[in-house]
C-alpha cells in the first residue's frame, strides 16, 4: 500500500506566497532613529518580486549566491523573500567581522552578488575589489565613500525600479540550498552552514507552534536579533508565514531607540540577548519603559540568569524564557518554557535552564566514548542533536567529525539533561577546565566571579598546572580600572562553588576581547596568556 | 553549493518519542460514563510499546495493515501511536458503516490485523470470517457474541501483557504509508486516502501553529471527533506532539455525558460538529454547562452558521471558529480565525466563513475549464487545493481525475474566495442546481428553508424541469410530522433569497436519510424521488 499524498516540495516560495496572499494587510515598520515607516506585506511582496526580476535580469539563476551586508531594514527583508524563492542562495554577512574575514567568507561561498548598506561597504572596498567571483553590487543608503569600488554597482531603488514584479518562482527541489550563514568561528576559519528550502520551511512551521514562539497574525515582532546572525532566529520567515507585524530597528539598538520603537509600535514579541535586556532594565530604572504590550521575551546567545528572569518578571510582569540554539540548528533547538503544572518559583528556575527540545528536535547526552550519560540533571556530558533542521556538516566539508558515526551533530557544548527533558548547557567543551581529573565548567564559574562585589566582567580559562594538569585562571575587569584584592575575591567565592573550582590564578585587565557576536573571545585570551601579554598572579596553592 | 543539513526523515516515531520523553507527565483520560480514569503519557507510551512488540511477534511488519474498529478509547490511542511507528499502516474503520461496506473496505485495504471493540465486532462476524487477508483480531471490552468468529483472536490486555516494551522503532522512509482512512463515499465505492509519515508529521506541526489550533502542553483536548473519521482532525498526533492532556469520551457523546466530562476535566479545546454544539446549547438552556475552561471551539463537518457562532459567544463567551477539511486534506485545510484588526461583528461574520488556508496549504478557484475565477468573495468556482499534506489520489488509483493536469486536488466543492483569502464553500459541485443556466447552491438554500417557522430539517435537490432544465425540490420534516403549508413557506422565503432560488417543488417526509457521518444523504433522496418513493407537489410555476 503506497501513500497517496502529493509530492509537494517544502519551500521558501510557499512561505513567500502565504504571507503575501493570506496576510496582505500585515505590516513591516522601519525605525529611522526618529519614527517608524510602515509598509504592508502586499507592498513588501511586490517590491521583493521586483527585486527578484531585477536580479534575474542581472544574471542570478539557480544556486547563485547573493550576499547581504545590512542592518535589519526593508531591503534586507526583501532579499530574504526574493533570493531563495527565485532559486538563489541568500548569504547574510556579519557586518561586525573583520574585513579580511568577510573577504574569506565571501570567497568561500563564491558570492556573485552583494546587496550592501553603502556606509558598511565603504570600509571594505579593497577586499570587495579583490573578490573574483563577485559580479555586481546593489547599494542601499549612502553611496559616498564608494569611489574606489572597481566592481559594477547600482543603487537599490534604481535597480528594482526598472523591473515589474516577477510573476512566477521556479520549481526548486526542497533539498536545494536556499541560504547560508557562517559560524562565528571562535576556533579556526568560519564555516558555512547551508540551509535548504525544506529546512527553512520546517523551521518556520516549528517556530509558529504554541509551545515554541507561538507566532500569529496578532503579533508584532520587534526584530532585535541581527538578520545576519543565524537568520535572526529565523523570524523573518516564521513571522512572515504567521502574518505578524514586524518592526525593524535598522542600526538603532541603543536603549533610548528601543524605548522609542516600543512606544511607537507596542510589540508583543522579541528575541534578544541578555545584554540588551540589562541595558533596558537600567534605562527603565531611570525612566520607566512601557513594556505592557509584550506577551513573552526570548533571550539567548549567552546564558540567561535566574536573576534577570526574576527582574524582568518583577518589573514588567513578562515571562522571559531562554533559547539555546546555534547557526547549525537554524537556530531553534530548545526553549525554556516551563510545563503547565509548576509553581511560579519553579517556573522561574526552569526558565533559567537552556530549555526543552521543540517538537522535531532531539537532544542526547553522551560521554567521550559516545556512551549514554544519565539524564538526571546532574551528570555532565556532550550535547548532541538530531532533527530535520539540524546541520550535518559545513560547506566544502569543513569541520569534519562534527557528525557522529550514528548521525548526530556534536555541538561542542557540555551540559546536563534532566528527567523532564530540560537541557542545561554548562560550557563549551573546549572551555571545560580539567583539574585533577575533574571538570570545572568555566562559563558557570565566570558567572560567579562576575557577581563578586567590585568585579565588572570576568573570564575564566584553564592554565597548565604542574600538579593538577589544569587550573582555572580568572581574568577580571573592574568599574574604575583599579586592580581588585584577589585574595578577598577568593574568600568571597567560598561556599558559593565547589572548593576545587576556586581559582588561585588571577589577572586584572582593562577590557576583555569580544568576538564579532559579542561573546568573550577565549581564543584571544588564551593567546594573550600564552605570549605573556596578559600577566597573572598565583595567589595561593590548591591542594 | 549544496545544503549541509541532515537528511532526517519526518515520521510518526519522532512524534511518539517527543510526547513520550518531553511530555511524560501529560495525561490521557478515559470517560466510562461515570468517571474519568487517567494515564500518563509515559504509561501510555509504555503500553503502546508493548502493543508494538506483541504485534511484531504476531507478524506485523513493514506496510502490514492493522485496522481498528473502536470508539475513542485507550487501546485506540495506543494503536495510533504503535502501528505507524513500527512500520505498519493504521486503518481506522468507521463503525457507522454498513457491515458489507466495512467488509469491502477491509478487503480493499487488505487488512491483516484488526483491533476491535467486542461489542462492535459482534454484528460483523460473517463479514469478518469471509475476509481472506485478515489473520488475527485483538478484542477490547466485551467478548461475548464472538462465538461464531472463525478467525484467531486474543483479548487486548492479554495480548500486550505477554510482551515487554519494544525498544527501537525501525527506520522508515518518510514517504511510506503510515495510515489510511476511507472517504465516506456519498457517491460510488469508498476510496482509501493513504497518509505517509511525512504528511502526518507536517500536519501535526501545522496544527500546533498559533494561527491554527495553537495546541500546547497547557491544553486539555476533549476529543469529541471520532478517531475513525479523518484521524479525529489529526488531534491524536498533533496533541501528543504538543503534550496536551486528552479526554477520550468512548461512546459517550450525549449532552449529559459531555457535561460530565467538561465538569470533571475542564477542557480548553475541542473540535466537533454543529449538531453536538446545538445539543449542548439546548442542554445548557435547561441546566447551565460550565464552559469557562475553553479557549476556543472548532466546528466542521457541516456549515457553521453565524447564528450558532453568536449563540456560543453570547452564552459562553467562547470564540467558535469553523474548519473546512476532508479526509483528503489530513484534514486541516482552512480555518476561520478572523484577522487581528476587525470589529467583533465582522469577526463573527468571518468565523462563519469556511476559513483561510493554514500555512502550508494553498486554495484556488477555477471554472470548469480550469481558468481562474475572480477572488472577489462573490464569484463561484471549483475549489482546488495544493499542499504537502493534501492527497493526490486514492488507493489502487480509485477516483482518477481528482488531480488536475497541473497538480491540484479538485475537491468537488463549489465556493468563493475573497480578497483576504477567506474561502466560503457554497455547495458540493454535484449538488448545485442548474436553473436556466444559473447555479443555485442547494446547501445554502437548505439553510434558509430549515430556518422557516414550522420546519425541522430540510433537503434541497434538483429535479428535471421541462423549461429550466433543473429546478429545486425542497423536502422538509416537521416537528410533529404534520405536513406544512408549502405556499406559506414559499412566501416566507421571499426577500431572503434570490427569486429564482425559491422552490416550486415541495415534499414532506417523516425523516431524512443520513450518511454514516451524519450528513443528509442526497444520493438516497435522489433515488427515492426517481423511483417515486418520495412524492412531491408542484405548488406554483417559476417564470
Labels describing this entry:
543 residues; 17 helices; nine-stranded mixed sheet; seven-stranded mixed sheet; alpha/beta; 29% helix; 26 strands; homodimer
How do the helices and strands line up, and which of them pair or pack?
Two copies of one chain form a homodimer.
Chain A: H1 12-22, E1 27-31, E2 36-40, H2 41-58, E3 65-69, H3 74-85, E4 89-92, H4 99-109, E5 113-117, H5 118-121, H6 125-129, E6 136-140, E7 153-155, H7 156-161, E8 177-182, E9 192-196, H8 197-208, E10 220-222, H9 230-233, H10 235-242, E11 245-248, H11 255-265, E12 269-272, H12 274-286, E13 296-299, H13 306-316, E14 320-324, E15 334-335, H14 344-351, E16 356-357, E17 361-366, E18 381-387, E19 409-417, E20 423-428, E21 433-435, E22 438-440, H15 442-450, E23 458-465, E24 469-476, H16 486-493, E25 505-508, H17 522-530, E26 537-538
Helix pairs in contact in A: 1-2, 1-3, 1-10, 2-3, 8-10, 11-12, 12-13
